[in-house]
Request: fold
Amino acid sequence: MTPSEQTRNQLALQASIPGGMATLESILCTDELHRRPVRSPDYEAENRALVALVGALADSPTTILQTLADTTLATLSAESAGLSLLTKDKKRFYWAAIAGAWSPHIGGGTPREFGPCGDVLDRNAPLLFKHFEKRYGYFLPVTPLVEECLLVPFYVAGESVGTVWAISHSKDKKFDAEDLRVLESMGRFASAAYQAVESIETLRLEISARDKAEEELRELTIGLEQEVQMRTEALVKARSELAHVARVTSLGALTASIAHEVNQPIGASRNNANAALRFLAADPPDLLEVKEALESVVNETYRAQRIIGRIRDQVKREPSRKENVNLNDAIEEVISLVRGELSTNRVSVRTQLANVLSLVHGDRVQLQQIILNLILNAIEAMADSSADARNLAISSETQSDGAILVTIADSGPGIAPGDRERIFESFFTTKSGGIGIGLSICRSIIDAHGGRLWVDNPQSGGAVLRFTLPTVQ
Amino acid sequence: MAQKSLVSIVDDDHSFRESLRRLLRSLGYPVAAFPSAADFLASPNLDATGCLVTDVQMPKMSGIELFSHLLNTGRQIPTILVTAYPEVGVQERVLSLGVECYLPKPLEESVLIRCLRSVFARGQKSRGA
Reply:
């Protein structure tokens, strides 16, 4: 054929396209798929492709569509392959991924109402096109021209959202039934990939929203954590203060309960002894009863011993915790502890605490127990004084030898000269119902701290208790 | 009319309760002893009791509550209160309520005897013409 004949043929070819549009039927040859020589299915190749796709979906979901296009190209031995997605407004298909000769045309697309993808969705079936540019003239500039194009639809939630396609640009590659089978497989994968990609997009939005929410939550958490911390610290502090108060007041409560308890064996002993005497004086004497009564007496003395032993155990059990103590603070704490007692008993307190006081090295709890004991003794001593004459004076000062001197003075009847040393003996008491434990323990504690506890001669009535403690150098 | 001569003791402390029972026995009184007010109130000895000797500090019902309960239920049993925690204010109050005696532990035997005698002498007096 002469060049001029070729040109004439081309012109004739172009002239034979009426208005540029062939019928749809004239460009379809789907039936050909099944008339072409049958190839046995290459499941292995298909499996390899799918496994690779699944792996790619996991590793890089954002590029899965391109990977799908690449895989389709390779598995079908096509010359171009790609994925078309229906836009949200359903008016266009755009080429989301392309592999092979048509790669440069990525991002292009076709109208929904007039194009091969549209036809596939309309018929809801795979289609094989040949030279679809005869109908769809907009393909003419999209080179290389398409010889055959095989398309399959894919669905998401029952709705068709796009196509997967393979293209041959030459007469060498003719698509067959096996190609269709594999392409449908790719189509099913495309469904999954599409949903994954959609999820990723949604996820991305969610993530940025969540990041923002997380940031706010983080700030809120920090605020909460700080608050929890503060409250925990306050709670721990309150709890330790309470435990401290309990330890300081425990000795008094302990001696009170022991006073009650030790009266029982003493009372029972006396009853038994009195009964023994009576049984002995009976006519005739009931010696069996006498024996039982005296045996009971002996038992009761053991009971009394056990009860009293509990004080010593209690005092010993608390391990001595030495620290540097500010006696003014210790005194003020104790005064606040007994505020209730003071007001109930109408006792007025005057404190004269030195401005500057060196620290004392000792057991803070024990020292406070002593101060508490002395104050409670004073309150009790003034119980019989008239309500307007109950005065308690507490002072602290530094002596010339550097030691600290604490004085507790009351306006009660005072301590008889003969009792001034005796009150520190165990079991000596001037109180009815008292068992005289407090002051002897106080003195042994002060002694253990290297100090002295004594009764002073008062200028004017009342009792004056003083103790010294050496200071930390 | 037979005089009620039973002395009922109520005290949750086992040793003291038994020692008082022994002492009262040595003094010649018939005695019944109970570990709680509830046990005493539930016993058949309740109506036979001519004198109640009860501890004050007891769990559930105190000696003073027991005395009040007896008053409120119309039972006039002469009562001696015994306590390890004697308090002046309490003494005044219970004596004005009609308690026979308010005694501290350990008991002073001669005081206890005096109280018991005045309870039972009164009973004897009421029998006479």
Remarks:
- DSSP finds twelve helices and 13 strands in chain A.
- The radius of gyration of chain A is 53 Å.
- Confidence is low (pLDDT under 50) at residues 9-18 of chain A.
